[in-house]
Amino acid sequence: MRLSNPDLEFITIGRILAPWGVKGKLKVKIETDFPQRFASGAKVYINQQPMTIDSAEWHHGNKLIIKLSAIDSIEEAQKLRGKTVEIPHSQVQPLPEGHYYHFQLIGLEVWTTQGELLGKITEILTPESNDIYVVRNAKGEILIPAIEDVVKSVDLEQGHVVIEPIKGLLG
Fold it and tell me: Same structural domain for residues 26 and 49?
């Protein structure tokens, strides 16, 4: 899945849940493995508009309270409820070999080692244990556990994933 101009593509790193207090602070659910992106002075994008983080403080686990320099009232903060906090694709941290961002996997075709096309990854579920790829085709959807015994290769250039179905996986 190649991007024509990575600077124009954005990926989500958080979601604004609600205003926090009356001075424009925002409660944000973190959706990145790199929460340090929310440091004071960092630039993020909301509605593809650049904004600077003035301050950030952790609140109950994976929630963060941030103050954006351009937002100074509860009314302004309220307008951002439900919006995504994004960064340009060009700022994505490189991952170790064999690890992938969800946005890289969504849309890839899934093939078996026997050459059967199962469908495309449309969603990735993230329960406690391991990710699960939701693969959709004309017949419905198949849930593929993202574990080493099943996922044999991922080829981003070719746009496909090859799996070795374990007993009971495909019906």
Answer: yes
